Amino acid sequence: MKKVLITYNMFREGYTELIEKYDVTLPPEGVETFTYDEVYEMIPAYDALLSMFNFPVDKKLMDHAGKLKIVSNYAVGYDNIDIPYATQKGIQVTNTPDPVTEPTADQAMGLLLAVSRRISEIDRRVRIPGAVKWGLLENLGHSLFGKTIGIIGMGRIGRALARRALASGMKVVYHNRKRLSLEEEQKCNAIYLPLDELIRTADVVSLNAPHTNETFHLIGEPELKAMKSSAILINTARGPLVDERALIRALQEHWIWGAGLDVFEFGDVISPEFFEMDNVVINPHTGTQTYEVRNEMAAYAARNIMNFFEGTGAVACVNKI
Ligand code: GLV
Which pTM does this prediction carry? Predict the structure, then answer.
């Protein structure tokens, strides 16, 4: 029986079939996650690793994993995994694109509404007696209707966000490493723009691209200074796409109107300056954090492992081995 090591404790429902058919190890009841060192100790005995988006699957771990055939990442992003090295070692890496698309687009839209209409900030103040005024010219935000959203990264999540933005009466422009076909552009109702033009002209800039060497600090001081002073930046992709020090200055000095962030440059260490600012809405990487999606992602990651070993169906492969 093949052995599968799951790094993080999760609802069991999504793993039901995997647990029936394979020898599965999960962290014991009451333990959230195995540490890197624990996984390092155990990995030589395992054929498959089911890892979370923030669990580092590096050279050291893979060199210690003599039997490992597949790393099934519980995420669409896989910047936690040394992909070239996995490929070199003949280890299949897979991800979970389908279940992640719609909830991440919801999160981006939710952050955008919260920032543009100052929902979180006003909610915080209205709870304190006397801290909020009710006047018609108080608590003003910005309308989305008629504005332009610039989506950087027009993959599945970018397109799902485009649908939501169009439903809100926004215009959609996008930038992507590879321009979409005319037919796809028409389907998305989106106009391609070079990156610098998108940054200069969009009312909202949403990051929906993966974290790679090319996208590291895609938004830094020059880009933030080039954005409209009324613009909003949304990041539900990966933190390192934004130079966080530059963003803090941009928000403090009002180069832009606001930002909605689900991810941070330094992972779960949030720069404390954000806690002091009302023009930023911050969430601790909760883009896929719903009861439904947690199970869907688990089932998808489990299915990748079962289909890989059994050759019975699709496997969402990230690398070619
Ligand atoms: C979430 O961040 C994911 O990559 O699925």
Answer: 0.96
